[in-house]
Amino acid sequence: MTIEKVVVHPLVLRNIFHKHHCVVKNTGRRGVGVLLGWRHGGIVSVTNSYAVLFKEDSVWSFDQTHHESMLRMFESVSDVVVGWYSTSPEPHVNNLDMHAVFRKYADDPLFLTIDVMRTEMEIPTVAYLAVDEVNEVGSSKKTFFRVFTEVAPPPEEIGTSTRSTLVSEMLIDGALQDTIESHYLFVKNKVRISVEGYDLSLDPFDLDRSLEEHFGTCGTVEYVDVPRHPDTNAISNRCSTVTLGGEFAEEKALALNGTDVEGWTVTVKVLPPAMTELMSGKSPRELALEYLAARNC
């Protein structure tokens, strides 16, 4: 089944940021590690992580023995390997080779890049899957395809004592509150639009590219969601969703209603916020405080 969304637990980000600043920051290298979690339908939930020994000088190397030793320590936990992460948002020539290694541990591994140097209050992660891209002569090669990502508050399923421990650790300097507030702020500042008018016979990757290019004039294209069949990967719905960021993105997107996109006419409609709480008119800080109060944090 196609992965439609990746949900990252704040604890994962905290662990990765901490590891990077304590161990990797002054080495000039990126940090690499394993992502643990679970998958249900089209959603992957990343709930834990650990760093691995990784070098990429003239030849890259990944210590699989160390990784498998670490993995055995998590055998009593229900989480499984769902992919891997890198603390560099920039593309690296070794990423696809590294990704291939993780196919040994997960059928369809996730690749998560984490910008540990980002200062803006936005989600510092981007998730990718490796897909086959077919060229004009019919041959294919692996390429990374972006997947919608969000940061979630601590899961409700964890026990009270465990949750209290996580909260006490993450409330240093208001870290948990800031994480939740940042998530609300991120979602609030994005514009979601529905796009219709295309034919289902189009290639989903071509449609994704066309929409990203067409609406790139409106601001930053954060995410393009083209519904795809879980088995055939063909376009399965005549309505796609585009998430935009930037000043006046909504007005600019609506101005493109009725314009031509490579031979078909686009219909644009503005969608409500992805989180219904934001329709209350309350600020992201108020919503974060309410969330924590409701969970006795």
What spatial order of strands do you see in the largest sheet? 1-3-2-6-7-8-9
Work out the count of structural domains. Answer: 2
Distance between the termini: 36 Å
What is the H/E string? EHEEEEHEHEEEHHEHEEHEEEH
Q: Classify the fold: give the CATH topology of the largest domain.
A: Cytidine Deaminase, domain 2
- What proportion of the residues is helical, as a percent range? 25-40%
**Oligomeric state of the chains?**
single chain
Show unreliable segments: 154-174
How would a textbook summarize the main sheet? 7 strands, mixed, barrel
Strand content: 25-35%
Number of strands: 15
CATH class category name of the largest domain: Alpha Beta
Architecture (CATH level 2) name of the largest domain? 3-Layer(aba) Sandwich
Number of helices: 8
Instruction: Give the overall average pLDDT.
Output: 80
CATH homologous superfamily heading of the largest domain: Cytidine Deaminase, domain 2
Protein name: MPN domain-containing protein
GO molecular function: metallopeptidase activity; nucleic acid binding
